[in-house]
Amino acid sequence: MQAFGFNQFGGPEVFTAIDRPAPQPKAGQVAIQVIGFGFNPYDASLRRGEQANNRPLSFPIVPGQDVVGKITALGDGVTEYKIGDIVMNHRPLRGYADVVTASLAKVAPKSQALSFLDAAALPNAGVTAYALVHSLGHLEKGQRIAVIGASGSVGSLAVQLAKYAGASVLAVAGQRHADFIHWLLPDDVYFYDGPMQHNADWAHQFDLVVDAATNGTNGELAAWLVKPSGTITTVGDTGNIPAVEDVTIAAAGGKQPISDHDILMYYNHMAETYGLTVRVAKQVSFDATGVQEAHTLLDQGGVPGKIVAIKPHGRTTRHTPDDQ
């Protein structure tokens, strides 16, 4: 089999195809023939060597946290799945490959309500959004939530999770994403680069403020929106958020009280009963050239959604409107 990784840190050109034996599932694991995988900003940070001190890894390094594929082998004791089942997998590394193995806590069936593009893009963004809204944010029905970075892959899922939970949602994004934001049906919208400035009625009115924008650098806006005794959750460093008395501040990234399997099943149920839009910005080829192209886009920044690599199979339905 082939994987796509690198033997030195650097730019997108360091990625090459790596031949290696296909992994075999251990007890409690499944082997997955990968149909598609997603790209995340963390993957580019890993490639640039920015994580080398915090997470030392041996070369070659194969990134990849999002996988959709077909089960090809079962480890001892696995009875929940059968050969041929299509599943999603949220994983720590090594998703850029023809075959991966995964434990059952990291795997969930792909709902027929999700396309293969959706499923390749969903796992990491979905798990992160769930943490921001539920595991850390503890959002309840009837509460008010503001989502900063609502046009991105994590932020748009956070908006939908909040609507599904019965909350009132303010979506905060750039004006060029207006068509997509309105597609999500938030209760109110603030375009931070539009003609309307801060609405004074929003000051300190939100039970939960989610900063899902890249690197979570909107701490001052989050502090302005959150109500006394409210909560701010972020994809970035909590140090970016000014200290606010009696406000809980938490960052995504830690262990959640429920498994990735349960979170992905929650999204399956949501897709089937409410609807789910997973924002996919770009599809690239399932090879080293496609991986290099995706990482070039990640380095450039500003990609409106996830980038995914998909093998040709004729079932890659897009569920969202083109970016305007």
Could you please describe the fold and organization of this structure?
The termini are far apart. The protein has 2 domains: 2-123 and 279-310, Quinone Oxidoreductase, Chain A, domain 1 (Alpha-Beta Complex), CATH 3.90.180; 137-251, Rossmann fold (3-Layer(aba) Sandwich). The strands form 3 sheets. Strands 3, 4, 5, 6, 7, 14 and 15 form a 7-stranded mixed sheet that branches. The longest helix is centred in the middle third of the chain and has 20 residues, at 116-135. α2 (116-135) crosses α3 (153-164) and α2 crosses α6 (260-273). With 324 residues, the chain is of the alpha/beta class. The chain has 7 helices and 15 strands. InterPro entries: ADH-like_N (IPR013154), ER (IPR020843), GroES-like_sf (IPR011032), NAD(P)-bd_dom_sf (IPR036291), Zinc-ADH_QOR/CCCR (IPR051603). It holds the Pfam family ADH_N. Keywords: NADP.
Any idea of the CATH class of the largest domain? Alpha Beta
Biggest β-sheet strands, sense, barrel: 7 strands, mixed
The name of the CATH superfamily of the largest domain reads: Medium-chain alcohol dehydrogenases, catalytic domain
Terminal CA distance: 39 Å
State the share of residues found in helices, binned by percent: 10-25%
Question: Structural class per helix/strand content?
Answer: alpha/beta
Please count the helical segments.
7
β content, as a range? 25-35%
